[in-house]
Amino acid sequence: MTTPAGTPARTADVAVVGAGIIGLATAERLSAQGLSVTVVDGHGPASGATGASGGLVRALDLSTSAALSWAAEGLDRYLRRGPHGLWPEVREHGALTLFGADGAARAEDAAARVRAAGHTADVLDAKEITAAFPGIAPPEDGFGVHEPRAGWLPARAVAEAVLRDADRVTLLAPARALEITTAGSRVTGVRTTAGFVRARAVLLAAGVHSADLARTAGVELRLRTRSVSYCVFAPRTPVTGTLPTVLDTTTGAWLRRWDDGTGILAGAPSTVRDVPPVVTPGVPDAEAERVRGVVRHRCPGLVGAELVGGVTAFDALGPDGGGEVTAWPDPAGLVTATGWNGGGFKKAPAVGRYAAELLREAAS
Ligand SMILES: Cc1cc2nc3c(=O)[nH]c(=O)nc-3n(C[C@H](O)[C@H](O)[C@H](O)COP(=O)(O)OP(=O)(O)OC[C@H]3O[C@@H](n4cnc5c(N)ncnc54)[C@H](O)[C@@H]3O)c2cc1C
């Protein structure tokens, strides 16, 4: 690859490809450190997985200890509402992670790890869960880890607020990145449909599309799409009382109150891979039936509930499933942040902080 001839259209310390929550959180951190950043996006802010996100935030992440520490740092930053206290407020409905009857030790261990990461977490038994949250039916003789200061956020509004905080950031959109340009073994910038952006460091945070772009710089990323969608149900009888965000480890079901306070947003993990990377409003009836069939075990109020909305979308799935941030030695200056597999929103402030550290070094 070579640097295109001609005068560069723009110059920045760092070029970020992708104005999803990962790219924007990174751009904000770079900007706060005095670096100039150009963010390019083929459509506009939050037009990929971020705009479809359920926005559940909690410190607990059962995949890896690195993921838990990113999620805990992310929650902390969301609770502080960003560097200037201007991001939307976390809807602190609490988060409840449910385990089966054999899950006491796992629940105790998970709660201890959340506390070690600086957040409050209590273990509740099934009786205590039913008393505190009458809308939830825990697994028989099961347990829950309750994080009282967790909850959910409106993901698109957060992405827009992060961008507003990033005052040294120029957003170039619509501008589709076509190629990561290099000279020798260093990146020199990004060629886009809106011109060339010259930069000493480049972040690829374009979700699953990052793989094609990385290849233009000789880097192979193993990414696939995974179907992630949710339904919005209107229960026949309102689910009253506190309804925390719920993630059930026995069925995979997850839910929260919908933004209007009456409906319930609910999802169940899908094993469908390699779906088209598009976001579509609504869900097919068969998918709604599948989700209702899983989620009703934990939220009986959803039996017979009417489907009133939802989204059919995707996220990028990487080899380890939890997401990776990598500074590549060749070409130097290239950093990738990909593979969040349905959990990138809660981690984004921490991922952005870490990616910004790597990019700052790469740009110096
Ligand atoms: C339905 C759903 C619910 C979810 N719920 C949760 C949740 O409750 N909690 C949680 O933590 N996570 C959740 N997630 C996951 C989370 O939303 C994602 O992991 C996260 O938003 C990924 O952010 P990103 O910035 O990596 O990617 P994206 O948001 O996909 O951003 C990538 C951007 O790159 C741009 N782009 C792509 N190709 C190019 C190109 N060639 N040139 C320029 N720009 C390009 C796209 O337009 C897009 O804006 C959910 C995801 C989905 C789909």
Automatic annotation (TrEMBL):
Keywords: Oxidoreductase. Residues 13-358 form the FAD dependent oxidoreductase domain. Pfam families: DAO. SUPFAM superfamilies: FAD/NAD(P)-binding domain. The keyword Oxidoreductase applies. InterPro entries: FAD-dep_OxRdtase (IPR006076), FAD/NAD-bd_sf (IPR036188). PANTHER family: FAD-DEPENDENT OXIDOREDUCTASE DOMAIN-CONTAINING PROTEIN 1 (PTHR13847:SF287), SARCOSINE DEHYDROGENASE-RELATED (PTHR13847). This is FAD-binding oxidoreductase.
